[in-house]
Design goal:
This protein is α/β, with parallel strands linked by helices. The protein has a twelve-stranded mixed sheet with strand order 8-10-13-16-19-24-27-30-33-36-38-39. Catalyzes the N-acylation of UDP-3-O-acylglucosamine using 3-hydroxyacyl-ACP as the acyl donor. Is involved in the biosynthesis of lipid A, a phosphorylated glycolipid that anchors the lipopolysaccharide to the outer membrane of the cell.
Length: 338
């Protein structure tokens, strides 16, 4: 895609200083800019690069005044960082604005979809699937029976959406995601073998939920596994059956949440956190990376460690943890004197 400086300025409500007709067709860091590239300057630490960059167009704040002549054309905006982010979003929308049904695909006769629909090759739509407007489903996606998908949803290549799953509006499901596989439910028999407990529930994603690549969310045993509106999950996360995650909670990669745990709103959970089942975590809780949570957590707690402690207590204790060898040596020395 090719855009001129004047077209970009129109999108960003900015002003051009330089050649308004100069064209760009790619994005670049300011220090790596070359002819035909668009870049931006927001961090003052990178100011020196604007005098050496070969980028054709650079987005800057309105208050930027160059010390000497520039080769790059400027687009001046109120906030260079936000404007560049807006442009990236616009770029993705244009790039991903596919429409139509590729072949081969399988669509059950009872599957329906709205306008501006895209279905990539080798995808499968089961019985009674209902899909809204402006939905993009990339190749090799499986969508089982009775799945409902709202408007403005993107499902990237290779995702698997099991039967009965409900997906709201404005959701993004990345490659390799599995929604609705059986929860890890087994009951021991008298002879010591484990017998699978049927998992008859489903998975619900409310509006504006993003699911990172390779993440798995299990269907409920009964009822639903629910991600409330605005939840953002990183890559390679495991959400077990009957878990509920509150609005606008964010979780980093490789975290695992065991069955029937309830997590509150606006929580921030770091990478590689392990959370046991059947507990309640309050609102606005912050959990540091690699922590292990084995108890209920009150609103606004900040935790670290395994088992996790209050964040402040952990830091105070850590001072002693790292000095344990010295402390033991001192104790042994005192014992020898005695």
């Amino acid at each position: 895609m090719i855009f001129t400086a004047s077209q970009i300025a129109g999108i960003l409500e900015g002003d051009v200083e330089g050649n308004p007709e100069i064209a760009v067709h790619k994005l670049a860091k300011i220090e790596e800019g070359e002819k035909g590239a668009l870049t931006f300057l927001a961090n003052p630490k990178y100011t020196s690069y604007i005098y050496t960059t070969k980028a054709s167009v650079t987005i800057v704040n309105r208050d930027f005044v160059p010390d000497h002549q520039l080769e790059t054309t400027l687009i001046k905006v109120d906030d260079a960082y936000k404007s560049f982010s807006k442009l990236l979003e616009y770029y993705n929308q244009v790039k991903n604005n596919k429409i139509g049904i590729e072949e081969p695909v399988f669509r059950a006769d009872t599957a329906t979809h709205g306008k501006d629909f895209y279905l990539g090759a080798f995808s499968y739509l089961g019985n009674n699937v209902k899909i809204g407007d402006n939905v993009k489903i990339y190749p090799n996606v499986y969508i089982g029976d009775n799945v409902s998908i709202g408007n403005n949803v993107v499902i990237f290549a290779g995702a698997k959406i099991y039967s009965e799953t409900l997906i709201g509006n404005n959701c993004v499901v990345h490659s390799g995601v599995v929604l609705g596989a059986d929860g890890f439910g087994f009951a021991p028999s008298e002879n010591g073998e484990y017998i699978a407990v049927p998992q008859t529930g489903n998975v619900i994603l409310e509006d504006n939920v993003d699911i990172g690549a390779g993440t798995t969310i299990d269907r409920a045993t009964l009822g639903s596994t629910i991600l409330r509106k605005g939840v953002k999950l990183d890559n390679q996360i495991q959400i077990a059956h009957n878990v509920e995650i509150g609005e606008h909670t964010v979780i980093a990669a490789q975290t695992g949440i065991a069955g029937s745990t309830k997590i509150g709103k606006y929580c921030k959970i770091g990478g590689q956190v392990g959370i046991v089942g059947h507990i309640i975590i309050g609102d606005r809780v912050k959990i540091q990376a690699q922590s292990g949570i084995g108890r209920n957590v009150k609103d606004d707690e900040i935790l670290q460690g395994s088992p996790a402690l209050n964040y402040g207590d952990y830091n105070k204790s850590y001072v002693h943890f790292k000095n344990l060898p010295k402390i033991i040596n001192r104790l042994e020395h005192i014992e020898k004197k005695d």
